[in-house]
């Protein structure tokens, strides 16, 4: 496991508990010096778990969080295996460089969302972190209490929160906002998630537009559907104190759900937290990586929220990596992927020089 080189990245691909588990399988683990410091894991904890501090790039398998830089790819010898978030849909040049280097690479975001692969689903594990932290950001920027308060000075009504896009991040956001005392409502173009929203004690916002797609994602809406969706959402959004958006279409620009007109219609002091900032944003007034105020409404578009909670985000991600690695190991502990396995076949984005 090398140190992460991306700015602001505090997560790591392995944690001591996972190192201990891998050691029981006969896997030798090498950690680069200081690799875990961002997640508050000193080298001593890795060595106590059985890891060696040294050069990770010489290992048979290299586990990372973020896509490798060109310099890092240059450190990977032909035939090595790389595991991490590799952005195959948005950064094809990285995949091409890995293929040219003869590296066998497995993209965590390409793991199929099937029951058998749930323990390896890093997109879901990290989305849980993002959904939770998004609500805390909303509460921080809000000018109102989330829960109903009854005081000697009178009663304060609870805040109303709308979550647009109720995949893993959205469901976690609904659950967290509910725990903080807000009145919650969820919306998604996939009608089958309505029962999940209601199971969290939230209301379901039905706009009459459906777009269920493959792999647990929503399909891209037609131009006519988008127009009708925006019209109906504009009317609904103005009634909420907090709006959290999580809608993404893999490999495409994020759909616009919160228009400038909708923001203008919200009460002063309201908050929009846009989790799709990295892919263009769900809010028309989003400025990726910034917190701005437009029409007296605060719009936050944080990038890489899981990195702001590196301890638990790393713990979850390391379990995902370990589960995938164990799937590709044979009885002797050597890397020997079974390409008839759907999980490995779909997660692999380059097979070296085969």
Automatic annotation (TrEMBL):
Catalytic activity of the protein: NAD(+) + NADPH + H(+)(in) = NADH + NADP(+) + H(+)(out)
Residue ranges constituting the Alanine dehydrogenase/pyridine nucleotide transhydrogenase NAD(H)-binding domain according to the UniProt record: 139-301
Entry-linked InterPro entries: AlaDH/PNT_N (IPR007886), AlaDH/PNT_NAD(H)-bd (IPR007698), NAD(P)-bd_dom_sf (IPR036291)
EC assignment: 7.1.1.1
A Pfam family assignment: AlaDh_PNT_N
Residue ranges annotated for the Alanine dehydrogenase/pyridine nucleotide transhydrogenase N-terminal domain, each copy included: 2-130
Residues of the signal peptide: none
Name of the top EC class for this enzyme: translocase
Domain of life: Bacteria
Keywords: NAD, NADP, Nucleotide-binding, Translocase
NCBIfam families assigned to the protein according to its UniProt record, in alphabetical order: PRK09424.1 (NF006942)
Main function: The transhydrogenation between NADH and NADP is coupled to respiration and ATP hydrolysis and functions as a proton pump across the membrane.
Protein name: proton-translocating NAD(P)(+) transhydrogenase
């Amino acid at each position: 496991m090398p140190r992460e080189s991306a700015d602001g990245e505090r997560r790591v691909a392995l944690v001591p508990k996972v190192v201990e588990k891998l050691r029981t399988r006969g896997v030798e683990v090498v950690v680069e010096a200081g690799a875990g410091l961002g997640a508050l894991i000193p080298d001593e904890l890795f060595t106590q778990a059985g890891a060696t501090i040294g050069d990770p790039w010489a290992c048979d398998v290299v586990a990372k969080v973020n896509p490798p830089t060109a310099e890092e790819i240059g450190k990977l010898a032909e035939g090595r295996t790389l595991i991490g978030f590799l952005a195959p849909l948005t950064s094809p040049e990285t995949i091409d460089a890995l293929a040219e280097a003869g590296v066998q690479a497995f993209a965590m975001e390409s793991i199929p969302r099937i029951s058998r692969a749930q323990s390896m689903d890093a997109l879901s594990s990290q989305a849980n972190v993002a959904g939770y932290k998004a609500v805390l950001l909303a509460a921080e920027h809000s000018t109102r209490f989330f829960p109903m308060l009854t005081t000697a000075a009178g009663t304060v009504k609870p805040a109303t929160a709308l979550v647009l896009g109720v995949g893993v991040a959205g469901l976690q956001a609904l659950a967290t906002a509910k725990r903080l005392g807000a009145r919650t409502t969820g919306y998604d173009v996939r009608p089958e998630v309505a029962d999940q929203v209601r199971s969290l004690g939230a209301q379901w916002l039905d706009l009459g537009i459906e777009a269920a797609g493959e792999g647990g994602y929503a399909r891209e809406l037609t131009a006519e559907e988008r127009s009708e969706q925006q019209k109906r959402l504009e009317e609904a959004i103005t009634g909420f104190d907090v709006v959290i958006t999580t809608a993404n279409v893999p490999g495409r620009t994020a759909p616009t759900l919160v228009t400038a007109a909708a923001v203008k219609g919200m009460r002063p002091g309201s908050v929009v937290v846009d989790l799709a900032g990295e892919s263009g944003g769900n809010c028309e007034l989003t400025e990726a990586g910034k917190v701005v105020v437009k029409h007296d409404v605060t719009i936050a578009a944080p990038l890489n929220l899981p990195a702001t909670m590196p301890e638990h985000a790393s713990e979850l991600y390391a379990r995902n990596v370990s589960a995938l690695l164990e799937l590709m190991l044979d009885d002797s502990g050597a890397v020997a992927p079974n390409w008839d396995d759907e999980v490995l076949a779909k997660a692999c984005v380059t097979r070296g020089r085969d």
